[in-house]
Fold:
Amino acid sequence: MICFAFPLAHEAESLLKQCKQKDEFTIDGVHCTLGNIGRRPNVLIARIGMGEAQAADNTATIFQHFKLKCLVLAGYGGALVQPLKVGQVLVSSNYSSEAVLGFLRMFSGFDFASFCTVDEIVGTPAGREEIARANEAQVADMETETVASVVAAYQIPFLAVRAISDAYDNVLPVGALAAGFNASLGKPTPVKLLRYLAAHPSEIRPMGKFISDLGLARKNLTRFLGTLNNELPAGW
Structure:
């Protein structure tokens, strides 16, 4: 069984729409969907939460209840270098299993990059440059390192995939993002966001751009995952 694990519901939404004969349930707080996608039966889609601690704990929960043969961690990522564009799909060259990386060399529609895991959203080019230099990385996310550590204990193939949601030169409305989403609950907080934007109108436009860019990132991510699902070994 392959598991596609996503930190956020928004990241998983389009792939879930492709899932047929599905069964939705929650195990120890982890939202799961089991169904058929494309040519592959019994695919598990799990929402593991945002941030290292929550994602690691929920990934461990998945292994307690399912016998997985491969885990794909997918979601949005931030560009730490200028050449990367919004919507570009990247596969981690430093956390993904070597066996999977070799197989992927036959694919198109993505690039390899070095990932690093951070504990907060990086909102400015200066901050991104500092992190890129310190970690020798091109993509930042908030879950890959700890999820990779959990998966490594089970000695199964692991793949980390991110679609760029914010480019290197974007200045993110960090305050609006914090107001608009409760990371611990994994839920948007629209009323709180509206109140924040009313008090900080300068962040309205950057917030609108960020939300708009998510659509392209999700579209390209879902397309790549669909191809991956159909082409990975049938025995996984």
